[in-house]
Specification:
This protein is of the alpha+beta class and 302 residues long. It has eight helices and 14 strands. The chain has a seven-stranded mixed β-sheet. The protein has a five-stranded antiparallel β-sheet with strand order 10-14-13-12-11. Strands 7-8 form a two-stranded antiparallel sheet.
Length: 302
């Protein structure tokens, strides 16, 4: 997948992805679009590094996915956006430092909100693909036999989240970042929607690693997935056979052709304890046979 492409061009605006991250070009100025999905809060960063936070707003990755598929998006105020509307709101909000979405929508004046169409029926094979975007929505798989297997090993330091592949094209860095953001919305907030750990996935960097690295032996110093499972700060007595059992449930169709990205860990408070000495881990693994992602994270201290 090419991680740089245009999603929309028209009305003097451009929306697209560059090096895996969303951007908007408005009036000759290019803005980077990132977010804190737990709030959610859309960040608009201009070429000089000045940041505007649009509170209660959008996850830009999901927004651009919707526009590519010919769908609109809806803000929490009920206003429906097409691509040009979205750019118009961005241009109005940029430079305001902090602004609520309802204030940013004053750019539309008395223009009536569009009537939201009835949602399409969801496909049985991919029940997420017809879902309309809402700021709090994620693509997390809530129920899967894997979770019961993983729950049998509570003393592992590894945290898991299964995420649907909601992107139209074959996965690449952008899709992995979107999966990571969805996992954070699940793992990093409590049942009331309050952040347990603050994070900004837009600041995370990644490199692709070979699938064989995913199951590499425990190293003497470097953190890896097997070490996160078998060797947390306090011994758990788990064995390689336990590790294999968990991964047989995590990848029930086999491990051929897994696409693995290893992420930096300086973008969330979740990893603070592990950085003290034990180590940190953040992986996204795309399983092409099941068309889903496994997000694996670890951070621990004594």
């Amino acid at each position: 997948m090419n991680d740089s492409f245009e999603v929309y061009r028209g009305g003097g605006y451009v929306l697209g992805i560059e090096d895996g991250l969303p951007y908007a070009r408005i009036g000759g100025e290019t803005y980077k679009l990132t977010c804190h999905p737990y709030e959610p809060c859309l960040y608009i960063t201009d070429g000089g590094g000045r940041v505007t936070a649009v509170h209660n707003s959008f996850d830009p990755v999901s927004v651009l996915d919707s526009f590519r598929d010919g769908r609109t998006v809806t803000s929490i105020t009920g206003r429906e956006y097409g691509a040009e509307d979205f750019c118009e709101m961005l241009g109005y909000a940029a430079g305001a430092v902090d602004i609520q979405i309802d204030d940013a929508e004053k750019v539309f004046g008395g223009r009536a909100k569009r009537k939201t169409p009835e949602p399409e029926k969801k496909s049985k094979d991919k029940p997420w693909e017809a879902a309309a975007f809402l700021p709090e929505q994620g693509a997390v798989i809530e129920s899967d036999p894997f979770y019961a297997v993983a729950a049998a090993y509570p003393d592992s330091a590894a945290d898991y989240c299964l995420v649907m592949n909601a992107h139209r094209e074959a996965p690449g860095l952008n899709s992995h970042r979107s999966a990571l953001a969805a996992a954070c919305r699940k793992l990093f907030i409590d049942e009331n929607g309050k952040a347990i750990w603050r994070y900004d996935v837009g600041k995370a960097d990644a490199k692709q690693v070979g699938a064989d690295a995913l199951f590499a032996p425990v190293g003497k110093s470097a953190m890896n997935y097997r070490k996160a499972f078998l060797d947390p700060p306090y011994p758990n007595g788990y064995t390689d056979a336990d590790f294999d059992r968990v991964n047989a449930a995590l990848f029930p169709a086999g491990t051929d052709g897994l696409e693995v990205f290893e992420w930096t860990t300086d973008w969330s408070e979740y990893f603070d304890e592990g950085r003290e000495w034990w180590g940190t881990l953040c992986l996204t693994v795309y399983d092409k046979k099941l068309d889903r992602f496994a997000v694996i994270m670890a951070s621990a201290t004594d």
